[in-house]
TrEMBL record:
PANTHER family: FI17812P1-RELATED, ZINC METALLOPROTEASE FAMILY M13 NEPRILYSIN-RELATED. It holds the Pfam family Peptidase_M13. It comes from Lactococcus lactis. This is Endopeptidase PepO. Gene3D superfamilies: Collagenase (Catalytic Domain). Belongs to the peptidase M13 family. Its EC number is 3.4.24.-. One of its GO terms (molecular function) is metalloendopeptidase activity. It comes from the Bacteria. InterPro entries: MetalloPept_cat_dom_sf (IPR024079), Peptidase_M13 (IPR000718), Peptidase_M13_C (IPR018497). Signal peptide: none annotated. Transmembrane segments: none annotated. Keywords: Hydrolase.
Length: 173
């Protein structure tokens, strides 16, 4: 996640995105229900919360039914973590781009590396049925496809498997 021997871009793509992920939980579908004092309290304007609920539905649809080695993902089960992943990578990318030596290839590559996992199919199936996190491969591959910089960095084209049309790129914040 972090190393003094890594570039700042790699550290933003690793620990930076994870820290931002955790902070963004304050505003995911669970955290959004609590006010600044930590009390269960409706504090959003109705129109803002309705717009956020639409974004939640889009996030559910983005992951729901995506096939993995262990079976299809359950978009409803993993929505809060997916919102946090998208918020985390987006915030970390924004911060990384402020660095004079930013290397977006290193940033996105580190993001993918932190989700590497080696596990039996049975273990993956168990996680798929009860873990609130998306399967590792989906965490690595789906959030970047919502970011324009990913397409520019890797020259992703319409014919590439990771291509998502601009109008389908989900922006939570």
């Amino acid at each position: 996640f972090y190393s003094l021997e890594q570039s700042s871009s790699q550290n933003y793509g690793g620990i930076g995105a994870v820290i931002a992920h955790e902070i963004s939980h304050a505003f995911d579908n669970n955290g959004a229900q609590f006010d600044k004092e930590g009390n269960l309290n409706k504090w959003w304007l109705d129109k803002d919360y309705e717009a956020f609920e639409e974004k939640q539905k889009e996030m559910i649809a983005l992951f729901d039914g995506v096939e993995t080695e262990a079976g299809p993902a359950n978009g409803k089960l993993i929505v809060s973590e997916n919102i946090a992943d998208q918020g985390g990578i987006t915030a970390a990318l924004t911060a990384a781009k402020d660095e004079k030596d930013v290397d977006l290839k290193a940033f996105f590559s580190q993001w993918a590396k932190i989700w590497r996992m080696k596990a039996s199919k049975e273990f993956q199936q168990m996680l798929l049925s009860m873990d609130f996190h998306a399967p590792a491969k989906l965490r690595a591959n789906i959030p970047p496809t919502n970011l324009e910089e990913f397409y520019d960095t890797f020259d992703v084209k319409e014919t590439d498997k990771m291509y998502r049309a601009p109008e389908n790129r989900l922006k939570i914040w």
